[in-house]
Description:
The chain is of the alpha+beta class. It contains 14 helices and 22 strands. Helix 1 (11-22) links the parallel strand 1 (3-7) and strand 2.
Amino acid sequence: MSRVVVAGGGISGLAAAYRLAGAGVDVMLIESAPAVGGKLRVSDVAGVPVDEGAEMFLRRVPEALDLVSELGRADELVSPRTSTASVWARGALRPMPAGTVMGLPSRAAALRGVLSDAETARVELDRLLPGSAPGEDVSVGRWVGHRVGRAVVERLVDPLLGGVYAGRADELSLAATIPQLPRDERSVLAAARRALPPVSSTEPVFATLTGGMGSLPGSVADAIGTRGGEILTGRAVRELARTSTGWRVVHGATTDEQAVEADAVVVALPPAPAARLLAEVAPSAATTLGEIDTASMAIVTIAWRRSDVPSLASSGYLVPAVYGRPVKAATFASAKWAHLDRGEHVVVRCSIGRQGDVSELQRADSELVAATTAELVGHAGFRGEPVDARVSRWGGALPQYAVGHRDRVTRIRAATAAVSGLAVCGATYDGVGVPACIRTAYAAADQVLAELTTREAR
């Protein structure tokens, strides 16, 4: 039986190991943290289990839905009670405009309120401005700002991209971050209209598990064990070396170093640790991985007395960076998810931290809680003080899909594919959402399985 080592126990590494174990391969997954799961983690706030990282996934991308079903947890899937959201603009919370794609408008008129009349008129010029389709990759902010004006970038596009990537529209790749956008339209309005889902679609956009997305890794780990796989935690993979028959994988601290022989390796790590691990065996891939930056963020989860919270008609709101406030987004979790709406408390999740803005994240937990409290009291109508709070810090958690990202990914994959028995996967490559991570994991596992099958046939 072939043996494959998976380095990294986030959802990508777990999904790769799950796929390999299901194909009858002897799998060993090695994770440096005390537990698997990566950015998927759940813990209690005021007695309510609330996700510390990602809280949901896209339903229209099948990988996460299929995995949940395979694990026997389909009956635990739930969708948000409300999809309405707001954005802080021009001194007030205003409804997010309808008919947008990651903040890119399909109709100028829908932006009134978020934009002034003059700014809305500027959007209309998109129909008349000369120019060509994006063609080669450009930054989202550069293209959108040129076509429809900076107000759209600053008040809609940048906050939405900041929520997904903790990045900045002026630096992020249009091709990589909004891949559903047609590349042959010179008009933002026209491109956004073509990218919108069919009007007849009633399928909920997002879903989660009643136990939280943080409960998914444990289920995958259990399934790996049932399929005969092995999981080691608290041990980082420190070195990869080629042997005459495959790979030697060194893991653990220098005072407790162990090595395992393997026929193939899947590296499911963030850019920097992946680059270090591949430096000797795939140097060109390591160099390109080193070009991919990451952003850090924190999620402050707060519980409030229900009597101190105003009526919440939306799922939350975004705060554009131009307003200079620490909190970039607030999610009214109890209003958004029925399974979190219980008891005398209301739960809110607030995110802090954007690419290149580290000063806020250097503050103590108590200061982040105070900043979040001030945001909700000062701008969302909350009263009093929270009854419980939790700060979850995610250092270097989100890879930045800068201009040229797709080309970098192509080079990395070509370089690793040229090395026998080596594959990579994770949020670094084709999307930071859970389904995208699972998709890259399955692709890496299938690549390895195909190579092992070819070897055995010789």
